[in-house]
């Protein structure tokens, strides 16, 4: 998979772009909003295998010695997407990716800096 980064190294305007096979597809993510310490909004554009434009949001809320992370995604739901949802279970299709991403975030955040 080809991956490129552009814009500022961190924060609003940082861009991650990828081009991959049919499994990974192609797309672009850009940090659109960042409110420390608890909110990040990302403009997420998929180009392959299908086009979709969404906003992903991470909300972080302190809970004792831990942090509760909520990851959501919203965007338009055109007619063809509604038809696909009657055939495919979207939670089964992408739920594992959300779980994998949240587990990676947990591992990274809990690993002591060297």
What does this structure look like?
- The chain has helices at residues 79-87, 90-110; strands spanning 2-6, 15-19, 26-35, 39-48, 52-63, 66-74.
- It has 114 residues and is an alpha+beta fold.
- It folds into 2 domains: 1-76, START domain (Alpha-D-Glucose-1,6-Bisphosphate, Chain A, domain 4), CATH 3.30.530; 77-114.
- The protein has a 6-stranded antiparallel sheet, with no helix packed on it.
- It is globular and about 45 Å long.
- It starts with a strand and ends with a helix.
What's this, in brief?
The chain has 2 helices and 6 strands; from the N terminus they run E-E-E-E-E-E-H-H. With 114 residues, it is of the alpha+beta class. The protein folds into 2 domains: 76 residues, Alpha-D-Glucose-1,6-Bisphosphate, Chain A, domain 4, CATH 3.30.530; 38 residues.
Residue windows where pLDDT falls under 50 for at least 5 positions: none
* Number of extended strands: 6
Provide the residue-averaged pLDDT. Answer: 85
Order of helices and strands: EEEEEEHH
Q: State which percent range the strand residues make up.
A: 35-45%
The CATH level-2 architecture of the largest domain is identified as 2-Layer Sandwich
Category from helices, strands and their pairing: alpha+beta
Q: CATH topology of the largest domain, which one?
A: Alpha-D-Glucose-1,6-Bisphosphate, Chain A, domain 4
Tell the overall outline.
Answer: globular
Radius of gyration from the CA trace? 16 Å
The CATH C-level name of the largest domain is Alpha Beta
User: Total domains, how many?
Assistant: 2
Largest pleated sheet: 6 strands, antiparallel
Number of helices: 2
The termini sit apart by 29 Å
